[in-house]
Amino acid sequence: MKLTLLFVLLATLLLPAQSEINWTINLNTQQITQTDRRVFETLEKDLAVFLNGRTWTNDRFEPEERIDATLFLTITEQTEKNSQDGEQVIPNRYSGTLAVQTSRPVYGTGEVTPILNYQDKSIAFSYEQFAAIQLSEQSYTSELSSLLGFYAYLLLGLDYDTFSLMGGQPYYEQAQEIYNRLPAAIANSQGWSSGNKSNNRYFLLENLLSPRMVPVRRALYTYHRLGLDQMLTDPVAARNNITLAIEDLQTANQSYPNSALVQTFVDAKRDEIIEIYKGATGAEQGAVVQMMSRIDPSQAGQYRAIRTASAAAPAGRTTINRGPAGRQ
Q1: Ordered DSSP codes for 119-145
Q2: pTM of the model
Q3: φ, ψ at 132 (rounded to 5°)
């Protein structure tokens, strides 16, 4: 018996680490023609090994509890620089865009709800084939590992915020540490710079750590744990809680107009909110249409359609993607 237990223990210790996040990697390199395609095949494998083979927390996740996330990396060019002889391609240096999506299960159902749907338009990194992607907790290693680690901790923080009030704080702080370790030249680049006018990585993280954005983080918890997770048992109370979350979102938007975090929230939740309130009372619909039109003015027409929908969705239900039930 003791020998059997010893073998089980050794087998467990020898198992490769498994990430708390179940990453799906999509790499698009169609716009690059001058590079050996095998480099990108290796890159895609290395991304999967790094993201899915590393643990990011001290918590134990069962396989069905892992967070589903998708990374769409589009490489548009090999970065070029000007020299006395004209433009010169820098070997192993690439730029492009990144889209990150993640979802969370809804308690008691086979449904999932989107948490993040973010478009990062300023990606730049160096990659050398067969050189493993590594991330250190003490020092800077590379742009690529910093980028990937930043988003991994960001996704963890958002997920934890939906399960417990302000529960994601340790992971936002880990993302902050990655940012703090960046060399000045990289920290001042377009994707990371605080001087950039667009909503980039710096502003997304700054929002998550800002006291002015506490209402958004409270909304993440109220919307998901007290709202969607309660839909099956008490749809009226659940929808009331979602309305409270939207009120918090409006408060944050008034305090911090055009913030990256508020925009990220509505980009993920817009369609879901519309479906939820098709089954609400006229008073609820009016209040939510008014708030969301102020929070997300460019899409006000979509919210007004809540009141004119010819067929209301069943009260308390959401039209969202089907997926495995998960961590509660």
Answers
A1: EEEEEEEE--TT------SSS---HHH
A2: 0.86
A3: -60, 145
